[in-house]
Amino acid sequence: MTTTVKPPTAPPTAIRPKVVARTGLYAVLAANVVAVAVFFAQAGFAASNALVVLGRLFGLYGALLMAFQLLLVARLPWLDRRIGMDRLTSWHRWTGFGILWTLLAHAVFIAFGYAEGTDVGPIGTIVDLAETTEGVLRAVVALGIIIVVGAVSGRWARRRLAYETWHFIHFYTYVAVVLAITHQVAVGTTFTASSVARTYWYGVWTVALGAVVLGRAVLPLWRNLRHQFRVEAVVPESDNVVSIYITGRDLDKLPARAGQFFLWRFLTKDRWWQANPFSLSAAPDGRTLRLTAKAAGAGSAALRHVKPGTRVFAEGPYGAFTALHRTRPESVLIAGGVGVTPIRALLEELHGHAVVIYRVATDRDAVLYDELRELAHAKGAQLHLVTGPVQPDRLAPAELLRMVPDIADRDVFLCGPPPMMSAVLANLRELDVPKAQTHFERFSLAG
Q: CA torsion sign, 186 to 188 to 192 to 197?
């Protein structure tokens, strides 16, 4: 089905803000890498052998990666809106493996270095150091925690663990960070050799831990105290889809945009501990927020039984899937299944001509289709409802070109099931759609 009205052309709202954020992060990390090397060299190499020198250097860079890791998971709004939680989470994962290997190298080089010329051996050396040297036992415990967290972060383990279990284990990373800091203060040569280096490291840890406290605790608590979120209405959209309307105080002051999502906790006795990520399915209007969820599990299925008046604790808004990243005046919005929720909200906010492609198995699966059709008509957008089984690919390059001949000259916003998104991204590359014009977000944090 297609509705066509010639619309006005609107300029893009921003130019590559993610480049600014990424460049800033890279620059900060590079500057700190250099600073660590300088302070390490200034402290001298008065160690028993080269293995100990290498071990200390790996330890310092492991500490720097831990601080950078905290910055990635702090959920700072400025970074999140420009880079996106999914990409920050991906960087967090690889940084975590970097921490694991640098700290393992630190322990191995230190153990073999101090064991050189003795009869004790590397394992015995670690035991002796833990018993006789302040801070070493704490470092051993911290390394053990990081090894466990690294093991459960592997794909084979992650698929077998419930999200809540995996998340709970990851909380122990903060314990490892505190233990690592106290170990560094106790035996780190940069702390004893230079007051400037000592000030630098205290500054690094203060900024990193302060960012986590601000982004993960202070800001969510302050926003919920200010806005007092409550369920206003629960509206079934179909047999397995429900929309929930959230109201509160001063919602016009909440910095939420179409395309973003929140982590929602409905404060009932059986749900208060569950946090689920759901996108806004309508552009924020300053009066209500709306989420639309499909019953994909026990948690989302129970949403239709939430009562109006229920208190809500909402963390967010999160996500870079917004009009902030537009590079072209015209756009293509591609949705699959319940991935239509942020697409529908984006269509409401976007200016300029838009083509909406909605991919579902059957007409019955087209959630919010009536709303989408009316909104497309009002906005002068084209709407294509694409139905049928997965094969053949109904969003193949030739099909996309048929529906949007100038697709390479538009921004493309994509949201849907992971297999569909991967296939469409491959098709867009085949059509030479520039990467800078392709916008998508995966909810990887929620597994």
A: negative
